[in-house]
Amino acid sequence: MIATVARRLGVFALSLVGASLAIFIICQALPGDPARILLGDGASAEQIAAKAHELGTDRPAIVRYLTWVAGMLRGDFGTSYASGVAVSGLIGPTLPVTGALAGFSLLVSVVIALPFGMLAALRRRRWEGVAVSAVAQVGMAIPAFWAGILLSILFGVVWRVLPPNGYIPLTTDPIGWARSLALPVLALALVQAAVLVRYVRSAFIDVLSEDYYRTARAVGWSRWGALLRHGVRNASLSLVTVLGLQLASILVGAIVIEQVFVLPGLGSLLLTYVRQKDVMVIQGVVMLLVLAVLLINALVEVSYVLIDPRLRTAER
Amino acid sequence: MVTRTPHARFFPRRLAVALTALTLAAISACSPASSSSTGSSAGTPTVHAPAAKTLTVAATAEPSTLDMTAGPAVAPAQVQLYNVYETLVKIDGDGALQPLLAQRWSVSTDRTVYTFYLNPASKFASGEPVTADAVAKNIERIRTSKTVGAKYSAAMAVVTGEKAVDSSTLEVTLSRPSNTWLYSMADTAGMIADPASFDKLGTESAGSGPYMLDKWTRGDSIALKRNPNYWANPGRFDSVVFKYFPDPNAMNAAMMAGTIDIISNEQAPDALSQFADTAKYTLLEGATNMEVTLGLNNSSPALKDLKVRQAIAMAIDKKKLITNTEAGHGTVIGSMVVPTDPYYEDLSGINAYDPAKAKQLLTEAGATNLTLRFKPAALPYATAAAQQVAADLKAVGINTTIQEQQFPAAWVDAVYIKADYDLTIVGHAEARDLVTYTNPEYYWRYNNPAFTAQYQAADSAAADAYAPEMKKAAKILADDAASVWLYMMPNLVVTKATVTGLSKNATTDSFDVTTIATR
């Protein structure tokens, strides 16, 4: 058990080092000298040299890489070139926004997908099941940003029941916060739910043909009762894997949705500073996203053990 | 066990439908009063009475720093110039100079010494007076610091010394007479900040204007509040919020939902019809300083020939270009001059659209079967224009290979620094940027001593000869087809019908809210 954990941790650390190296090299390869971009048209060589020294970009790449990594280990992501403030100070306020957006989107997509997916499995030869599958197929083809624009226009401009865009912090006005998040969460969740419905459906179709399900039905459980009591846990093994992958794609989708709904999240931050070629901010945000995805994967692995007692025995 | 089954029967259909419907309904039902009132959506607790007046301005590009002179980006100046930071003189909406911190000024007979008489009432938001000494320190900072944006230090390069004669009289000495310099003093390069805060310009406000920084929510908005120490008529709003929308559709939606008062620059001209109802909205169309320019590399072998350059200029149907790319808004221009420049003259008739003449000129130059490297900046207006320019050139027999350049980094590297191009398109947003043609190293590699001499003569001329002499310089460029100036980017502003006093022209980097009122 300890060896397994140690091995997993080792792989985790190696992945992070590899990712940091890749991110750093790619950011170095972006065209343009930050000092020249900051100073603008017509800067003299002397001015550029002075600015580069101020930014620290005149140091060798290896020194910059090691300084960056050493800083991150202490929680210091460096200083933004363009704004001169700490990168962690820029990232910090965006985390609750993107976190709430991604978290609620996942939650809502599960809440939608689970019952509809089960319905689609149980009634797969009836019109209800076929209808759910058909709607899911159409839903999968809709890009989240398009759903976002549509929701924004319908609820924000035509019916005026929710703000079309913008963000209100939870601490300022909790109701306003929920209202400002409702449409972006729905836009992301609907598309994700459409994807998820298909996995839920096939997972439960598998359950329906299992012996334990037949046995449960034989001792008097209703179809839904047997599915809920015995099916959910078994089906969730494969669903958790899909959810882990989906959370990663929700994070990417959040970057787009933040643009559509003008939310001050991680994605907006990333795009703003990509335009200015502020390498320190780009590196910091991408590194954070990589860390999030790796952590999700680790959590998925842990959850296998929690869900499936057989794995626990095997580990011992 | 069996007791659980009955209610589970009703579980699926109800749960899904009910949950989604419930959350949505609950969230939209408890609509707080704040949601529709302008600007208060930010929820900042204001110290003023309930009738606090807020103006919410939607803008596209959020600044990365508050320091207006840190780099070429105009976003910090859009928020702060004239609103937070003042200048000795101000450029008004018609492009004319007006007194601001300086009540009046005089020029020596050899036109190299300017004496400014400061308004003795003027003071910074900190309460410190704006003294001649403080102004001198500002001019010195811009012209000597190695880390301020290059265009600002270049604008002040003509200054050789600044001296406080007494607390409200300032003498500035120039190395040669320059008419352009005074205009620069009225723009971002001439910003006057409290010298005690020079090292904090990126995050704090230290100006003498009617507003000061209240709260900057990165990724969202910058809120200004009224400066309680303002030395002249106080600002009309308790709060002015610049709210940033990277997406033009989101900006339009916010305007239609009523959460903003002004769209400071409409990026989607074809969406303007949504705001046609004059009872609710006001549309303003005016001038900017931005010339969308088809840059010609004057040092490339094919384009050294005047006839080829003229042929390219004559091949392009600028009117059709404006119709296609800006929905018919914008003004055709014929040189590096816009209508609000004091030396404007309509030169669009020079080398005007004439494809037959273009073909003839190409034949005369022996430049048939020409293929040119076309590297437009990858910006929406530039790539849209590039398609039509390429088609127009094709029609007179010039082939192009289009390679869009990511902007700014890749474009700056390939076009601006290395001049590895024949044709490019980018907008030149700086005011009075005719001067760039005097620099043979600038990316159009234009080297014409006659133009440079005329430009310098105009710059050094007596104030009343400035405009007529500069017109001659602009005409040299047009005759020479040094570039092809496609059109002036229109300044398209949408406001609620209740907003008045806003200038339709953007003559400086500022979005000047000091003249705005609401009914």
UniProtKB/TrEMBL annotation, chain A:
Annotated PROSITE patterns: ABC_TM1
Membrane-protein topology: Multi-pass membrane protein
Cell compartment(s), UniProt: Cell membrane
Domain of life: Bacteria
Classification via Gene3D superfamilies: MetI-like (1.10.3720.10)
Annotated ABC transmembrane type-1 domain residues: 95-300
Record-stated family: Belongs to the binding-protein-dependent transport system permease family.
Name of the protein in its database record: ABC transporter permease
From TrEMBL, chain B:
Signal peptide: 1-33
Taxonomy, superkingdom: Bacteria
Pfam families, per the entry: SBP_bac_5
CC annotations in GO: ATP-binding cassette (ABC) transporter complex; periplasmic space
Gene Ontology terms for molecular function: peptide transmembrane transporter activity
GO biological process terms held by the UniProt record: peptide transport
Gene3D superfamilies in the cross-refs: Dipeptide-binding Protein, Domain 3, Periplasmic binding protein-like II
Residues covered by the Solute-binding protein family domain: 97-429
UniProt entry keywords in alphabetical sequence: Signal
Name assigned to this protein: ABC transporter substrate-binding protein
Lineage: Bacteria, Bacillati, Actinomycetota, Actinomycetes, Propionibacteriales
